[in-house]
Amino acid sequence: MSESTPKRRLPPWLKRPLPAGGIYNNTSDIVKNLNIQTICTHANCPNQGQCWSRGTATVLILGNICTRNCKFCSVATGKPQPPDLTEPARLSQMAEGLGLKYLVITSVNRDDLADGGAGHFRDCINVVRSKRPEIKFEILTPDFRGCQSEAVEILKDALPFVFAHNVETVPSLYKKARSGADYRQSLNLLKMAKDKFPDTPMKSSIMLGIGETDDEVEQALRDLRSVGCERLTIGQYLKPSKESLDVVEYVTPEKFDWWGKKAIEIGFNWVISAPFARSSYFAEQENTG
Ligand code: SF4
Question: 21: left (phi > 0), else alpha (psi -120 to 50), else beta?
Answer without folding.
Answer: left
